[in-house]
Queue: 3 jobs
Job 1
Amino acid sequence: MWEQQHELGAQKMYSLCSELGGLFLKAAQILGKPDLAPMAWVKRLVTLCDKAPATPFDVVRDVVEKQFMKNFDDIFEFFDVEPVGSASIAQVHRARLKLSNTDVAVKVQHPGAEHLMMVDIRNMQAMALFLQKYDINFDLFSATKEMEKQICYEFDFVREASAMERIREFLRITNKKPPVMVPRVIPGMVTREVLVMEFIKGTPIMNLGNEMARRGIDPSGKIAAMAKQ
């Protein structure tokens, strides 16, 4: 009986957060973790980590052209209109650059997502101030301000690209064979809203358990322990 109730509740939460977007979508992604929610909720909400509602291709095309100030067809030889994945802030498409014939991943922000998320945070901050004044003796407002700062970072792809390159270089100089592959950022193809990087084939983290089993990797071994972290 409880399992059926959990499945019903998870579906309602999925539909609600998908429709509202913004911070609600981010919250659903966080809630869809095995250590936070029943398995019925995890199975439904975890799909929002890479299968959240996507931005139509025509809009993606416009965003890319405006950000790079170039004709879309002059940039890409090939561009898959179906995203590899879509989450709360952006979606990723596989493409091939026209000049270098390089396979790339193109990360494009959902238009309006940042504004919507900031509106949600402002509402949360107003509620935090109200609760602090009339109900609880705890600094909720500072926590929401820190959340605001961190989410703003996530919308800055220039900052993200810089961090990727620093990590990639650190791994290169400290390991003969780096244990982690970090995609190379394509020079000159980074703006605050669009990030182009080399495309690396891999296994989605949600499918990691099945892939480890297929390869015969011991789930109690070091590799599995690293993956769980």
Note: Residues 113-153 form one domain.
Job 2
Amino acid sequence: MRDRPERLMLYPPIISVDKYENGVSPYGVFQLTGNVSEWVADWYDKDYYKTAPEKNPKGPENGTQRGFRGGGWIDSTPSVRAAQRNGTDPNTKMNWMGYRCARDAQSTQAQPATLR
């Protein structure tokens, strides 16, 4: 889908992550899917998860492609999910690509987020 420039005219521009009240998870994460795909720190290898540890896989030690996750506005419906994994050259700059800030999860129960 990403190689069809005519799709760029079909959708609205990227939106603020807090635009939709129901777009927040119980952990306070806004718009995890459907806005842009997001760079992550891991290197990407399409076969890595076939042999990765079941708990907390860290990604390959090195590679030529950086990982990005989630689906964006330009993707087809099956790709718009938080677990979607892909990789590309780390110098790629596209209007369907953003980044995800993350921190370690706390062991306490998550509190619902509130809009600003």
Note: The helical segments are 48-51.
Job 3
Amino acid sequence: MYILGIETTCDETSVSIVKAYDNLKFDIISNIILSQDIHKIFGGIYPEQAFRKHQENIIKILAKAIENFDINKIELIGVSAFPGLVGALASGVAMAKTLGVILSKPVIPVNHLWGHLFANFAKIDFNSIDFKDLFPALGLVVSGGHTNLYFIENFLPIKIELIMNTLDDAVGEAYDKVARLLNLGFPGGPVIDKLAQNYTPTLNEKPIFPIPKSKDFSYSGLKTAVLRHIKNINFNNLDPEQKDIEIKKICYYFQYSAIEHIIKKIELILKEYKGNLRGINSIFVGGGVAANSFLRKRLIELANKFKINLYIPSVNLCTDNAAMIAIATFFIYKSFFNKINNDIIDFDVYPSEEEGIKIFKNN
């Protein structure tokens, strides 16, 4: 079946067409993404501007996504309904519901965070592994707004349980705030990752920032430690070369602590389940921070250590995109809405996952 996906949770406007097969193969026909550069001026996401830009761009993005495609072939429409910025979400949902009426096709609400996990199905080869052998699994979503860890009993039907989330700052948000402290621009993730790769610690050099030790994911303390360190350095007394080295050093050790915090949490869970009847077989990763080179390296090492499968999307599918929403639509439809035919599903938009998840529990 052909599925049209729409993504407008934050600052990316995206529309995609995906062909889904019953053997869980997914072909991405189109995946048009427009990022809103205007937020760079503010050094972070400005919700009102995000809403306006989605309103301006969504029809143009839709037109480009369906160019040279017979839209009447669409059988399902999926749209991010939660979590996210309410105004931004509403832009996408309004477009999806309008298309649903025009095409007489069901519109499926999608959990944006699950979408990041389902992005991995764009490349999983089921000729080399049976679907059932993927589970139980862990799902890690790392982004500007979320650092969530899930226990996944199954994807079809969906049985996903949130077991750990963000107490305060999410990992991507921490990257953005540290980048702002260093005047590196927005978004902070890619530039900090690049600068960190260009720093080589000296022999016996110790980390300058602690690894957070909270029960759940937490980055406010690490951010404060970086701020304190920067205040103790008088950049004005450093020559350009010394300043450059110091900035790279801060990026390196911030990234080390931020990523090791995640790795240690996952390692604890894997040890807890090791030998258990529900022993973990796979880790699925998604979200913008999943593009981070050090996180990918450490996850590969962790998966090798525990001899489990690791799935991380290609870098272009780590950012918010509608292809992952279209793929997630297939699984959500099969799990919760497969008896509806062309009935209208009544749903709203929700800023939090906790609120939005009730949509599925009520069907």
Note: Residues 286 and 345 are 27 Å apart (CA to CA).
